Structure formats: structure tokens, C-alpha cells
Amino acid sequence: STQSTGGGLFRDALSHVCRELQSRAVPLLVPTPNARAGTGDAQDAWLPAASAAATPLGAAMLAFVGKLMGLAVRGQHHLNLDLPPLVWRALVGERLSLIHISEPTRHAQISYAVF
Fold first, then answer.
1. In sequence order, what DSSP letters do the residues of 59-91 get, joined into one string?
2. What is the pLDDT of residues 54-68, one digit of tens each?
3. Residue among 60, 61, 48 at smallest CA distance from 91
4. How far is residue 33's CA from residue 105's CA, in Å, rounded to a whole number?
5. CA 112, CA 32: separation in Å to the nearest integer?
6. What Rg do the C-alpha atoms of the chain give, in angstroms?
7. pLDDT one-digit tens code per residue, 66-83
8. Which residue, among 19, 45, 59, 22, has the nearest Cα to 112 in the 3D structure?
């Protein structure tokens, strides 16, 4: 049972879901422009795809990720999502400035719409 393994099966499932989300298999997250350019900060981070919420399915998938985040917080589990500080600031309701918005693209010469 999951309780006898200390929640190991659940943690493994969360890790697998996060790996899938941060791959080209699921169209919800995309590598940061710095990752695509191979320069600057946040090269290992992923951003929500600008088109992710454009369809009912995409919106439902993003809602599922939000629920997954809530489960992880409530259960004190680590969610291995490599999101740049910009995304985390937005998720916790911090006020964003132009400096924050430019962080994932600071060194890349790529124009990218985040949301």
C-alpha cells in the first residue's frame, strides 16, 4: 500500500507527471526562450504555452495542473516543475514588473508572449 511505502508510489507518479509536462509530449509548457537559445538564465525552465488555454481541452489541462499543485502543497510533496520565477510570482499573486517579465528572455533575442 502507499502508506506502507511512505507515499513512494504517489511521489513517483508526481515525478512522472512532471517529466511528461516538461516534455514535448504535452503541449502545456514550452522551454523558455533562453533554453531555446542556449544562453542566459532559466535554461532549464519551462513556461506555460501561450496557446495552452486557447481550447477547452487546454484550459482543462491547465486546471488539472493547478489542482495537482494544490495536492502537492497540501500533502507537502515536492512538485518537480522547473518554472521560472516569473511564473511562480504570478501564481502567488505578486505584482509583476517589466523586469520580471523579461527574465526568461533576458539573454535571448526572441520575442515571446507568456500568457
1. HHHHHHHHHHHHHHHHTT--------HHHHHHH
2. 999 999 999 999 998
3. 48
4. 6
5. 9
6. 15
7. 998 898 888 888 888 888
8. 45
Say if residues 45 and 82 touch (Cβ distance below 8 Å): yes
Which pLDDT score, from 0 to 100, does residue 27 have?
A: 87
Mean pLDDT rounded to a whole number for the chain = 78
Task: Enter the C-alpha cell of residue 42.
Answer: 532559466
Residue pointed to by grid coordinates 531555446:
36
Alpha helical stretches, state H, the chain: 8-21, 33-37, 56-74, 85-91, 98-102
Give CA–CA dist 111/55, Å, rounded.
Answer: 23
Type of residue numbered 55: T
